[in-house]
Records
---
Amino acid sequence: MRLPFRMKSRGHPQSTGSLTRRMIGISTIWIVILLSAGGFGLDRVLSSAITRNFDSQLDYVLSALIASAEIGPDGEVFLNRAPADQRFLEPYSGLYYQISGDQSLSAEQRELQDLPSRSLWDRRLRIGGAHSDTDVHIYDSPEFDPEMLRVLERDVQIPGSKVRWRFQVAQSREGLDEQIAVLRRTLVRSFAVLGLGLIVLGSLQAFYGLWPLRRVRKAIADIKSGEKSRIEVRLPSEIAPLAEELNDLLAHVEVQAEEARRHAGNLAHALKTPLTVITNEATAHSPDLAPTVIREAATMRRQVDHHLARARAIGRRATAQSRAEVWPSLEAVERAVDRLYEHVTIDLAGVKTAAARVERQDLDEMLGNLIENAAKYGGGRVFVTVKETDDCVEIEIEDDGAGIPEGERGTIFERGARLDTEKPGTGLGLAIVRDVAQIYGGSVALEESEDLGGLLVRLKLPVAVNHGT
């Protein structure tokens, strides 16, 4: 039977694309932007240089015209020496000059007075308004369309004349535009080749730079297939810490898996005997079957509670960021124990800012077991002191009870061992505290209280890292 729709796979995280393509794409965009900006700037500089050189040649011709201009007897202007460039004599050659006088005269009078080059033939350069200075003015003019002109003009008062004469030199921009076009083609081709080379170089750099990551991927695939147990390839210094962290994570997972297998085996072994007793009693139709089931079920429950507590602590230990404030946990436990044992006085003292590298739930469970034992088996007074060193947080719980003989202090941590069999309890409190403390790298020790005369329990836990520094 065909399904009406296809389920999406949830086993793998969605990919965000290729890192190699991303690096190549970013480098390509930057190369294009930088080369475009650089090419544009270089084009502006070189085009301006070519244009200035073009204008300087026209300015030289304009200065020569002004230097050779004189006024005739009838007020007309003439040149005492002809320009050396023969293009001024060829009609429509693309190089022109024109000397214009008083614009208030009639066209016939201006024609007799003005002096155009022969190359203008039947055309004349356009004359704009008068300039108030004697500087050279440069502009482009489309007056001989489709031929674009580059015009230089200057107003000069020739000796012997009261008229301000307009000297104009014009040349077709065709040669100038052709030089600029050649320049731009060269720049475009050169920068295109340079950009392509840089993109290829960036691609090679991306492939080569990311190659160690492919080696890490291959090593992880080998670990997954069972060929290897660790990442053993040599890697660059930037990636080597990643491989080390992965190896540490693998070692941590192996330790947790081994602990889980060991706990499962211990739990199975612990439950095997009670189950055998119950089975035998049931098979023999024993009249004491009900009490036997209740007794053995309580034993199995103690074992299950013990191993569950260890399993929870091991699972929460996986993070190195665990942090629990000791004083709030002590106050919470004190309030709970006060309600259970109203005749007991609990005094707290010591460092109120101490923090241990444990989960708050596990800290509450350890302190709850220790303080409740002190209240249950003591004479009515419990004294808790918090100390802190560079390496650990030390919590001392003292009571005024009968204490424990030194020879029996080692056996009291065994599962099911109890301080007083006449009082209710499972006998797992100290065993759970010891196991959870050891999981976090701490310890529990039993001593004699010098102040109260009873038992002193010294709980040591690793100090938490202060994230505010």
---
Amino acid sequence: MSALPASPAESSPAQYLTFLLGGEMFAVGILNIKEIIEYGAVTEIPMVPPFIRGVINLRGAVVPVIDLASRFGGKRSEISRRTCIVIIELTENDERQDIGVVVDAVSEVLEIPASEIEPPPSFGARIRADFIQGMGKVNGKFVILLEVDKVLSVDEIASLSRMVTDGAVDTLAGGVPAA
């Protein structure tokens, strides 16, 4: 029995927006990217997990802003001249949600063929394995391809926010554990 030819979608390289975060190169599928804006005018919200920077007003819409470095378990990003907010559109339960993510610097859009993408490592990565879609090989180096639906899971972020506001995990917000 002969193998079926690969479909055009499988054989054509996918496009990814690459960006720096804590000195490492990450990438997100370009189809999820709505726009890239300069960092500024983020309104902080009290009683949320530290990785939620706040919200921005994007042409009249309230868009939450996530600090990816902090979301991955590190310290909050240092804001610099090259810091950007990448607006990512997610679809969850047939609802569209825009979420902004803080990145140190946007690099470029790359085409990475499927043949150059390795499965995520089972251990050793500094971020949760379910956040990684794969490891793209670009010019002899690895680029971490993010699984944006997992990294920016609206349900998970909402449940973490509820835990903080309910006082169950006050230490996340820098407070003292509830008595």
---
Amino acid sequence: MLHEILRTPAAPDIPQITSHEAEAAARAVIRLFEKWNVSDTEARELLGGLAARTYARWKAGEIGRIDRDLATRLSLLMGIHKGLRYLFSDPERGYAWVKKPNRAFGLRTPVEVMAQGDIFSLARVRSYLDAERGW
């Protein structure tokens, strides 16, 4: 016998990521990019083509409005960081991993894959790390 499954409302009452959480994630990602040793150009691509002036303001601590796409990118980047911390007991090895060629990505570095600009490239690296740690 079939049972109807109620639809999820299109606009949930509670947003998944609050503006304060998004700002905290943005600050953490700026520090993460320093650890990963990515250039400002690469960082802006990882963030979906963020304008140079906007990124400079972020680095100065002035985080503005973060839309859903950018919040999702920040979440994926934090998930990638988390996956690397699980996989590598030495944090420095995890930070270096993003700049090393990887056969799973056609001998491109994870940063090269993530910097393609589309959100799916970030998700691809995140999924790879999740699979590596058995999630």
